[in-house]
Structure formats: C-alpha cells, structure tokens
Specification:
This protein has 3 domains: 9-221, Orthogonal Bundle (Hypothetical protein af1432), CATH 1.10.3210.10; 233-369, Beta Polymerase, domain 2 (2-Layer Sandwich), CATH 3.30.460; 384-586, Beta-grasp domain (Ubiquitin-like (UB roll)), CATH 3.10.20. The protein is built from 28 helices and 11 strands. It has helices at 19-27, 36-47, 53-67, 80-92, 96-104, 107-110, 115-122, 124-132, 138-141, 144-159, 162-176, 183-203, 207-221, 223-234, 239-256, 270-279, 300-312, 354-362, 366-369, 384-393, 399-409, 432-439, 441-445, 500-513, 520-537, 546-554, 560-568, 574-586, and strands spanning 261-265, 290-295, 314-315, 321-322, 335-340, 346-353, 414-419, 422-427, 447-452, 455-457, 469-473. The strands form 3 sheets. Strands 1, 2, 3, 4, 5 and 6 form a 6-stranded mixed sheet that branches. A 3-stranded antiparallel sheet has the order 10-9-11, sandwiched between helices. A two-stranded antiparallel sheet has the order 7-8. Helix 1 crosses helix 4, helix 11 (162-176) runs parallel beside helix 13 and helix 12 (183-203) packs antiparallel against helix 13. Residues 1-32 and 477-485 have low confidence and may be disordered.
Length: 589
C-alpha cells in the first residue's frame, strides 16, 4: 500500500534481515530456479503440502507485469512489497487464496488492473479480499479517505476476516521498510499503526505478528528506549544459564506430578519490556525471566501443571490470572502465574495446552494453519468484537467520528466482568451503564440501577476486572409505575461512559428525542425506585409511603421528595436508608 523505503537491518531483533534484501538478491539471479516465487511456494507447501503452486506463479506473473516500472522509495522494484506480504502470510500458515490476494493486493489501487479483470482471472474470493484492502482515493475523499478506507476494510472483514490478515501483513512489511521516510512521516505512520493496526492484530489474536509490529513501532516512536532495551537484552550476564536452570527444575517438578509437558524459555519482546518499565517507573528495563509450559493433554492438565509449579516455587500473591476459565476477547487462553524462583528472583510462568499455544500464536489464522487439528480455533463466528463494530459503524455517517470511535473501541486496556451468566469484555474504566448497553441498547436506555458484587452502586462506578454486575431497568423497580418512570438515558451519563456503544446510543437517543436533562421530578422517581430495589435485596417491600415520610422527618429533611433526591444524588447511601427504614418499621419504639 504505502510506497516506502527499505532500510531496517539496524533494527536488530525486532526487524530481522528485511525481505527486500533477500528479494533483491533473488531478483538479480538470472536463470536461477531458486527465484522468489519458489521460496514462497516452498514456505507455503511446508505447511500445506497439496497447495496449488501454479496459481501462485500465475498471480505473481500478473502482479509483476502490472507493477513493472514502479519502484519503492528505497529503489527496489515495487513487486518486492506484495511478494513480501505474501511471504508473511505464508509463514503465518494462511491458505492459497490469501497468498494470491496478497500478491495482487495493490494492483487495483496502483495499476490499470480492474476489479472486473481480477474477478475474471482469479474469482470472487480473491476479488473480495483485494477490494477489501484497496484504499479510497484521497483526491476524491479528502480527509475522509482514511476513515472511509478503514470502514470499508472492516465491512469486508465482516464477510471474510482474511482481509484484516492481509492488511496487517501489509502494514508489517511497510513498517519494516520505513527508513527512507522523513522523521515526521515515520512518526505519523508509526502512530497510526499503534492506534489501529496493532490493536486490530491483537483482536485477531495473531501474537506472532503483533510482537513484530509492537517492536518496530517502538523503534520508530521511541528510538532511545529501543536502543536502551536492545543493549539490555544483549548484555544480561548469566541470563541463559538461569533460564536453563529454571526450565530444568520445572520439567522435574512436572514429571514428579506425572504431567506431560514441554517447557521452554519465553523471552519477552522489546515493546513488552518497555511497557512494563514505563508502567512501573523503573530506572532500568524491567524484564522478568519467563518460561512457557505447554502441556500435552486436556486443559485440566494445565491446573495440574500449575500445582506442580506452585509446589516447586512459592507463588507471588496477586500475580495469578486464569485466562482459561475467562478467555480474553481475542479468545486467548492460558494460565499466568509469577513465582519466586531460584536465587529469590521472580519468574513468570505461562501454562497452556498445545491447542491453546497454537491459538495464542496464530489467532484467527490457526484454522488455516492447522485446518484438521484445530476445529475449535478462533474463527469468523467467534469475532464478537467485529460484529459489534459492524453494528455501530452503520450508525455513524461521519468518517472521522467512525475512526475515532474505532480507536476507542480497540483500546488495548480491557476488563472482563460477569453479567447474566455471561463473560463480557469492556474498555478499562467502563461503568454499569457501559455494560448495560453492551447487553442491549434497550437495556442501556432503560437502566435504573446496578449492583456490583452484590452491593448497590452508583451508575458512574468504575468497574474492575472480575466484577459480577447486575443491571436493573425501570420496569424492575417495584415502587415505580411504568407511566411514572423516567424514560431513556440521562445526559449526564455521557460524562462517564467509556464504550463506543454506550456513547453512540446515548447521543443517538438525544439526537432523535431532543430530551431534556434529568429533572427534579425524575430524581424523585429514581430515588423511590432505588429504595425499592434495595429493599428487594432484603426480601422486603412497602405497602405505603408512611414509613418513608417518617424516616425523612427523622433524618431532618423537610419532605420525602427532598430525601429521595438525596438518594439519587448519592448524598444518602441507599443501603443506609433501607437499614434505618427496616429498623423503623420492625422496632417503631
């Protein structure tokens, strides 16, 4: 897509020998059978032995012919770019159709090759994939081009997620060859990659690509930090010996418990080290030793392995996460624990099955890489976040608003909460209102109150990872008749909701209804309903408002309505009011 240049050998670990260097040497070999298409075919057939090499050569011939005479800013023939994108897809294990589309992905955008000709030459599937990653013309769409291009890509991915796989591979190669751009251009592209493409890759679950994207973004945006971490990684005395010792002792502990597993060091990539270093405000790179335990058995063996590891070394309190029972929104599953290892050093341990390990590395590509052995790998039907984006993108006509909303929705920080027997993923900082809209737009609009871990809480309360939340709607308030209940959301919710879904639904409601802000009468009704809901927790109810009026008088309020407003505004805690109300009724003297 972006015609940018090829430097990158200096990027060391994050940017291994760039494809452009290899491909330049391949292209210069006249008459040598070991040409770039042969390399691509060998990589592809190593994973898919029966793949059709003929269609790869035919698609390469079309791409090379159409791009002939075009060059990248590095001076390399342009064909090196689509060939490198196809190579990334091949190494990922994608199918032949994806590789063909990768080879042709820039032809419609940058040459005279048309979608109609593409459809005639290679069929509907390839055409859909290529069209999905083809950008809108900036000359026609102006500033809206970027947002509309990404919207088009998301809609295309709703029909075939391979569109996003090609796009991520395309951006990865462009980021690896960004060196000839101006500093301002490098920063702009790297920032856009960090905002959209990196989290998209994470949502696809393809950690094998995300690690590379993370590191090359760090290289361009924080070159000093990258260099400092690079120096740290290359100069860690005794590091390999220590990890070898930890690995050997972990294997012994697992054998002792009769758990069959492979144990290997799991070095962290540069961006991960940098993120923890910054988050913890450490003066030197914060890089804990880490190992991965991949059990050869069912998921119950993961917990047996966890017991063996904790039997060997003392676990660190608060550093255990169970992503098997509660998978991440990209369906990542694993157990994470931190233990006090040999010599008193902290060691991180990941525990997963072979299937989980494959899915963690390849995400949505797992089913293509292992089509027979991974029937339950993440697939199109499991990308609930993509379905959500497809739903709300239809409500957004403005391209810049869509792009801003997408960036927000793709925010890396996520929390997991539980509601109505379901696991729900929300942006960090979300509130019960965000959750209500995630359950359904109607439930969000009619939200009245919520409990968090069994206790009534303000709707503006910030949810935390693992919270159990129950949402109550207006119709569930015992003391409120349907015709009296305030209808629809409150304007002040916009001041604390975090999710795109909640923001868009609330804004749409007020745009359609032009509803006023909450009135005093609404606050009275909300207060009355809140007390009714709180009484339900005690299996109690009120036959009349006489006890409420008596309590208001005892608490020094001029009337019942003023006390109910105080409850709505949380100047009075509902639990406290109900406890005093029960005491007043049960012990009137």
């Amino acid at each position: 897509m972006d015609v940018d240049a090829g430097h990158g050998a200096a990027l060391g670990r994050a940017l291994p020998t760039p494809f452009t260097q290899r491909l330049r040497s391949f292209l210069s070999l006249q008459g040598d059978d070991d040409d770039p298409v042969t390399t691509l075919t060998r990589t592809h057939r190593a994973i898919h032995p029966s793949a059709d090499a003929g269609v790869l050569r035919r698609s390469y011939a079309v791409a090379e012919n159409m791009h002939r005479g075009q060059f990248r800013k590095s001076g390399d023939p342009y064909i090196t770019h689509p060939l490198a994108v196809a190579q990334i897809c091949a190494e990922l294990g994608m199918d032949t159709t994806t590789l063909v589309a990768a080879l042709l992905h820039d032809t419609v955008e940058d040459t005279s090759y048309t979608l109609e000709t593409l459809h005639s030459d290679f069929g509907a599937e390839v055409t859909h994939l290529v069209d999905g990653v083809t950008k809108f013309d900036k000359a026609f769409y102006g500033k809206a081009a970027e947002g509309e291009t990404i919207r088009k890509m998301i809609v295309a991915a709703g029909k075939d997620v391979r569109v996003l796989v090609i796009k991520v591979a395309d951006r990865l190669h462009n980021m690896r060859t960004l060196g000839a751009r101006s500093p301002a251009s490098r920063a702009r592209i790297a920032t856009a990659t960090l905002d959209v493409l990196v989290p998209l890759c994470d949502r696809l679950g393809i950690q094998a690509l995300k690690r590379d994207l993370d590191d090359v973004v760090l290289y361009h945006l924080e070159p000093d930090s990258y260099a400092r971490i690079d120096e740290h990684v290359k100069n860690r005395p005794g590091w390999n010996e220590y990890l070898a010792d930890v690995t050997a002792k972990a294997r012994t502990a697992l054998r002792r418990q009769r758990v069959s597993a492979d144990v290997q060091p799991r070095p962290r990539h540069y961006y991960s080290i940098w993120k923890d270093t910054v988050a913890g405000e450490h003066s030197i790179p914060f890089d804990l030793p880490r190992i991965a335990v991949v059990v050869d058995g069912p998921e119950t063996d993961c917990y047996a392995a966890l017991g063996a590891i904790h039997g060997q070394w003392r676990p660190v309190a608060g550093r255990f996460k169970d992503f098997i029972a509660s998978p991440k929104n990209n369906l990542y599953r694993s157990l994470h624990t931190t233990v006090t290892g040999p010599d008193g050093r902290l060691v991180e341990v990941l525990i997963r099955t072979i299937s989980m390990h494959r899915c963690a590395e390849y995400g949505v590509a797992t089913g293509y890489r292992y089509p027979k052995s991974e029937p339950d790998s993440p697939g199109q039907d499991q990308l609930t976040w993509l379905k959500r984006v497809l739903d709300w993108q239809e409500e957004t006509t403005d391209a810049s608003q869509f792009l801003a909303s997408l960036r927000c929705d793709l925010a890396e920080a996520q929390i997991t909460v539980f509601a109505k027997g379901r696991t729900m993923e929300l942006p960090a900082g979300s509130t019960p209102v965000d959750l209500a809209y995630e359950l359904s737009p109607d439930k969000g609009d009619q939200t009245l109150a919520a409990t968090i871990n069994g206790r009534l809480a303000p709707l503006s309360s910030e949810l935390r990872d693992g919270d159990v939340v129950e949402i109550f709607t207006e119709s569930e308030g015992e003391q409120v008749a349907p015709e009296q209940a305030p209808r629809g959301p409150r304007k002040e919710w916009l001041g604390f909701v975090k999710s795109t879904q909640a923001q868009m639904q609330i804004n749409r409601y007020f745009a359609e209804e032009n509803a006023p802000g909450i009135s005093i009468q609404d606050k009275v009704r909300l207060g009355r309903a809140t007390i009714g809901l709180t009484l339900r927790k005690h299996d109690r109810g009120l036959a009349s408002e006489v006890p409420l009026r008596r309590l208001a008088e005892e608490l020094g309020y001029p009337d019942l309505e003023t006390m109910l407003v105080a409850v709505t505004e949380r100047n009075l805690e509902p639990d406290q009011v109900v406890e005093q109300l029960i005491a007043l009724v049960d012990h009137p003297d």
